[in-house]
Design a protein that fits this description.
By secondary structure, the chain is mostly helical. It has one domain. It is built from 21 helices and no strands. Helix 9 runs parallel beside helix 17.
Length: about 425
């Protein structure tokens, strides 16, 4: 490996990005909010990263412009980055087609129709876990389930923040574990590990948190009035592709095959059920892939910036800092978690946080002999923990908007994200 002199100034592009993106987010969210717009989404993350990349190009005059372009090309052309971009495209097509076919609503309504009213609260949590694991998106799950959760609150008098937090918590469970979620794709591909291997490590951390959360909700449900559950319309055939995708993913089947099977099934079943047509199916797939473009562009920009920062000695400066303060394998793991969490707080986007933190985390894992699958799990888990509790993240803002409450009021009832944080800390402390 090429020896480089540590150079903290090489980290300037990331600092520029954080100042621009975090600064504008705070300004438009809390100082001068614009009605109907989320403050952290006023400035495009692509623009902020673009300025950061320009900053990187102006650094290190010992390299020519063409040499810097070559470094960027090498970073973008990494096998894992290319695979990640292709998976993003397929995941977008799957998500768009499934939504157009009505798969998400049918799957949610099917499960809601069979849970007893006395267990509406823990039932919502479990349903949110399963739906988000199948869909691979926490925001999509929240959008589907929160309107139903609001109706449950009206029929029982349960605390609105508690019920909404229950949905958000379950949604983050699936976001963290689903093999077709943006976070899983980013965490595994940047570390060069199989999704099934990361899932095994992740599941042993997430399951205890989910079980404890379910237990708390069961106790709460037994002490409060049962919900008057309505009958929800669904088409069981439209739910089958989601369950099959979940099953294939759990069996460790290649993600390209999993997504391909899901797309074909939704195309055939949606067409047979009359919920999509030939033209609407392809249009939905196009819209779905279009929704992934920003994530893909961010991945390309971050890969370029990371390649330049590594060459300039920025990563070596970070590693030198971690060596001084971590001092052990456990310290390295906590360093990865802290880095990922801070990036998520700054960007309010768990996928972007992983893409930024991943190259540095990979260097840390090499330095302290941390298994790549463990590193991928830490990246994904910590990003989802922070994304699930920051009041200005898309998850809480969407949930708050749909339920008519403030995002701050939801935070005290987010049992699952806080328990997940406790479980991952315990897993690090007990690591041999």
């Amino acid at each position: 490996m090429k020896e480089r002199k540590p150079n903290a100034a090489a980290l300037l592009p990331i600092l520029i990005f954080l100042v621009l993106y975090l600064g504008s987010g705070i300004y438009f969210e809390y100082i001068a909010p614009e009605k109907g717009r989320m403050g952290f989404y006023v400035m495009s993350v692509v623009v902020a990263f673009g300025i950061a990349l320009i900053t990187a190009f102006f650094q290190n005059r010992s390299l020519t412009f063409d040499e810097k372009i070559h470094l960027c090309a090498q970073g973008i052309g990494d096998d894992n980055i290319v695979i990640m971009l292709f998976i993003f495209l397929m995941a977008g097509a799957f998500s768009g087609l499934a939504s157009e076919a009505g798969g998400a609503s049918s799957t949610a309504n099917l499960m809601l129709d069979i849970i007893p009213g006395s267990f509406a609260l823990p039932g919502l949590f479990i349903i949110a876990c399963l739906i988000s694991m199948s869909m691979g998106t926490s925001v999509g799950t929240i959008t589907v389930l929160v309107p139903i959760a609001v109706e449950i609150v009206r029929s029982t008098g349960l605390s609105m923040p508690l019920v909404i937090a229950t949905v958000v918590g379950g949604s983050m469970f699936g976001d963290n574990l689903s093999v077709i979620s943006d976070t899983t794709i980013a965490a595994t591909r940047t570390q060069g590990v199989e999704m099934k291997d990361k899932f095994k490590v992740n599941f042993l951390i997430a399951l205890p948190a989910a079980l404890i959360t379910t237990g708390i909700l069961v106790v709460y449900a037994l002490r409060n009035p049962a919900a008057s559950m309505a009958h929800y319309d669904y088409n069981i055939w439209l739910a089958i592709p989601y369950f099959l995708v979940l099953l294939l993913a759990l069996l460790g089947i290649n993600v390209f095959i999993v997504l391909g099977v899901g797309i074909v099934l939704f195309f055939l079943i949606g067409g047979a059920a009359g919920t999509i047509t030939f033209s609407s199916a392809f249009s939905a797939m196009g819209n779905g892939t279009g929704g992934m473009f920003e994530t893909m562009i961010v991945t390309i920009l971050v890969a370029s910036i990371s390649a330049l920062m590594r060459e300039y000695g920025g990563f070596d400066a970070l590693l030198a800092f971690i060596r001084r303060h971590a001092g052990s394998r456990r310290g390295g793991m906590f360093g990865i978690g802290l880095l990922t969490g801070l990036m998520d707080v700054a960007t309010a986007n768990n996928t972007v946080a992983i893409v930024i933190a991943a190259p540095i985390a990979k260097e840390i894992s090499r330095e302290y002999s941390i298994e790549p699958r463990k590193t991928a799990s830490l990246l994904d888990t910590w990003s989802c923990i922070f994304q699930g509790i920051i009041p200005y993240g898309a998850q809480l803002l969407v949930a708050a908007s749909l339920s008519g409450i403030s995002s701050i009021s939801i935070i005290p009832f987010l049992f699952y994200p806080f328990l997940l944080a406790a479980c991952v800390i315990v897993s690090i402390l007990t690591e041999r």
